[in-house]
Every structure is written in structure tokens, then in C-alpha cells.
Write a structure and sequence with these properties.
7 strands, elongated, alpha+beta, single chain, 3 helices, four-stranded antiparallel sheet, about 150 residues, three-stranded antiparallel sheet, about 15% helix
Length: about 150
């Protein structure tokens, strides 16, 4: 069973692997960091946020200083889809932004009997579902659905 985790990432619960949602490329162990399976482009932040003021005349130009900031873009090595981007200080390793309890995730989806790819309706070429009520809340727990307001 494949579970959409972000707009561009699946977790395949059968193989316990991260997959690109565009091309299906294997990006690594789902118990680890998917970023290790991507291509990384270390960008000069001035390419993305060009100076607003003339850097010859002003010290501060509203553009990030590359001595203090870098932008990492993580892309699928097969199709080139940008999966994630993050701003970091130079020399800082990529962050680990998701750690999942794969066994619990598998157990809950199997118990629900639902197809995760249909239920989790967001991603490439899809319209996002506006009701983000948790699918696995136990009875008596709180809810953030508009009906409870």
C-alpha cells in the first residue's frame, strides 16, 4: 500500500521505501531520511532573491547573504521533480523533516480498510481536500473539523 506523505512523496508500506509520486523512483528506506535518495542543488540565495538595492552602494540589499544562508533544493534523480527546499546556514547538514512509525502507519491504514491514495486527496494534478479531520482519531478525542465549532 502506498500512502501519500507530501505532494511529491509516497511511503510504500509493503516495501518500506520512499517513492517519488511523479515517476515512482525509489528514494530510500522509509525508516530513514528520503533526502538521502535525492539530488541536491546547493543554491546561492541571491539567485532566488536578487538584491532590491544596488549592492555597490548598499551593504544590505534585502537579498540573503550567502555567507550566512544557503538554499538546498532536493530533486528526484529520475524525473527531476523538486521534492523539497530548505534554507540553512552554510555547512549545516540537511534537516530530517519527517520520521514515521512505519509499523503503526501500516496498522492504522490496514485497519481502516481505505485506499490511502484515494483518501489522501492532494498532490500533483489534484485538488486538495479541505476537510483535514484526522482519519484515525479514537472516539472521544478532540477534532478540528468545522462542524465542532
Amino acid at each position: 500500500m502506498r500512502v501519500p506523505m507530501t505532494e511529491y512523496l509516497f511511503i510504500d508500506l509493503d516495501s518500506e521505501r520512499w517513492l517519488c509520486r511523479i515517476c515512482g523512483q525509489d528514494l530510500g528506506d522509509a525508516r530513514g531520511n528520503y533526502k538521502e535518495g535525492t539530488l541536491v542543488y546547493d543554491r546561492d540565495p541571491r539567485e532566488i532573491h536578487p538584491p532590491i538595492l544596488d549592492p555597490e552602494r548598499y551593504e544590505f540589499t534585502f537579498s540573503p547573504d550567502p555567507d550566512f544562508c544557503r538554499i538546498l533544493e532536493f530533486c528526484c534523480p529520475q524525473c527531476g521533480t523538486q521534492i523539497e527546499a530548505e534554507y540553512l546556514p552554510p555547512g549545516h547538514p540537511p534537516t530530517v523533516d519527517m520520521i514515521w512509525d512505519i509499523d503503526s502507519l501500516r496498522e492504522k491504514w490496514e485497519a481502516s480498510g481505505d485506499n490511502a491514495e484515494v483518501v489522501v486527496n492532494y498532490g500533483p494534478n489534484e485538488n486538495a481536500v479541505t476537510d483535514f479531520t484526522a482519519r484515525f482519531e479514537s472516539t472521544g478525542s478532540h477534532s478540528h473539523s468545522p462542524a465542532d465549532s
